[in-house]
Specification:
disordered N terminus; OB fold (Dihydrolipoamide Acetyltransferase, E2P); 20 strands; binds magnesium ion; six-stranded mixed sheet; binds adenosine-5'-triphosphate; 2 domains
């Protein structure tokens, strides 16, 4: 479960400004391998200095998208523009991009410091500058004392950090990071995330990152693209993706959520709950504060995240909220949170999460207890696709 939406981001939202020109533009890009469509007619704009994440299940086309931007693959159809210029045919080393591969691709015969220095030596930078940059990078990834080792003398996580240092050393305008932190333990991973954000902002770089870790994407990104089978399903800020997913797919992919299928009942602009819509689900009607353009009777889903549901032994005092009766079926203790699996009268299970704010609770809720679940009209979402 995503516990937070990450730190409050800097004021940066060029995508909301119609006058701003994207730094990178994918224009109707399709990539086929034989008959197989890996990327399908995809459009995407990324802005200068943006920290942009690609999220999606294995095989959805994330690496392929990056490889096309870096110049290791050419699109089958469509174009990729960099600062408005078509970059097709431009070889990788002539592009202002640098890609850190999923597989690291370190040089096995070179020491850690040589690996990091390699690109800088190719560019004929002065020796003193190279040494200084290598030292800075070694510090950054906390491998100062490993400078003289070779890749086969390192752990997987250490190798990953060398690859990260090597890709950052050249300070490319666009850094493509394919699962850069996957092999790191949680603490190091979180530290490195913040270091990455600092570097990105200090140097004014544009980052495109692939991650399987949603919390990581939420923490580091200005915007996230959620992909499915070669297509982008939604592009939005972390908070929008989490609070206003545009489909069942995105809602289900990011964070924990209850999704209940139902039928759109009506728009009720002036009822006791304010301007709301109603969704008829099995056994109850959900009241949701949301605008949606749907005809009555249409199949929709009602969704609500567990942490937005209040669980209590008594019915809620505020009758303007959504309320359901059920029985606690199971409890998961996660330390900071407890997750209650509550069985409704029809047999359906709804998840409610509660922060464990005090160590001792007067009346703990136990398995088998009858309980009430309640949530506000602005807590739920109606999903139309
Ligand atoms: N050179 C290739 N030839 C044929 N098919 C390929 C080739 N490269 C990638 N594919 C296919 O294209 C699809 C997308 O691959 P891609 O590597 O972009 O996925 P991904 O989203 O990066 O997945 P993962 O999260 O597992 O790294 C996959 O089904 C893959 O098998
Ligand atoms: Mg990949």
């Amino acid at each position: 479960m995503a516990k937070s939406l990450g730190p409050v981001k800097r004021k940066f939202s060029p995508w909301t400004d119609p006058a701003s020109v994207p730094f990178i533009r994918f224009e109707n890009v399709t990539k086929r391998f034989g008959d197989f469509v890996a990327v399908s007619n995809l459009n995407l704009d990324i802005y200068e200095r943006e920290f942009f994440s690609l999220l999606g299940p294995s095989g959805c086309g994330k690496t392929t998208l990056m490889r096309m931007l870096a110049g290791f693959e050419e699109p089958t159809e469509g174009r990729i523009l960099l600062q408005g210029k078509d970059i097709s045919g431009v070889p990788p080393y002539r592009r202002p991009t640098n890609m850190m591969f999923q597989s690291y691709a370190l040089f096995p015969h070179m020491t850690v410091e040589k690996n990091i220095a390699f690109g800088l030596e190719q560019d004929n930078l002065p020796k003193a500058d190279i040494a200084a940059r290598v030292e800075e990078m070694l510090k950054l990834v906390k491998l100062d004392s490993f400078a003289k080792r070779k890749p086969n003398q390192l752990s997987g996580g250490q190798r990953q950090r060398v690859a990260l240092a090597r890709s950052l050393a050249k300070r490319p305008k666009v850094l493509l990071l394919d699962e850069p932190l996957g092999a790191l333990d949680r603490k190091l991973r979180e530290e490195t995330q913040f270091e990455l954000m600092d570097i990105q902002q200090d140097l004014g770089l544009t980052f495109l990152i692939v991650t399987h870790d949603q919390e990581e994407a939420m923490t580091v990104s200005d915007r996230i693209a959620v992909m499915d089978k070669g297509e982008i399903v939604q592009v939005a800020t972390p908070a929008e993706i989490y609070e206003a997913p545009n489909s069942r797919y995105v809602a289900d992919f990011i964070g924990d959520i209850n999704i209940l299928e139902g039928k759109f009942e009506c728009h009720d602009p002036a009822g006791p709950h304010g301007d709301v819509v109603r969704v008829a689900c099995e056994g109850f009607t959900a009241v949701v504060e949301q605008q949606c353009n749907v005809a009555p009777g249409q199949d929709v889903a009602f969704a609500v995240r567990p942490e937005k549901i209040r669980i209590s032994p008594e019915p809620p005092a505020d009758t303007s909220v959504n309320a359901l009766h059920g029985e606690v079926w199971d409890i998961g203790y996660l330390g900071d949170f407890s997750v209650f699996l509550v069985k409704l009268e029809g047999g359906r299970i709804v998840r409610a999460a509660q922060a464990n704010i005090s160590r001792l609770v007067d009346r703990p809720i136990s398995v088998g207890d009858p309980v009430w679940l309640s949530w506000r009209a602005d807590a739920g979402i109606v999903l139309t696709r």
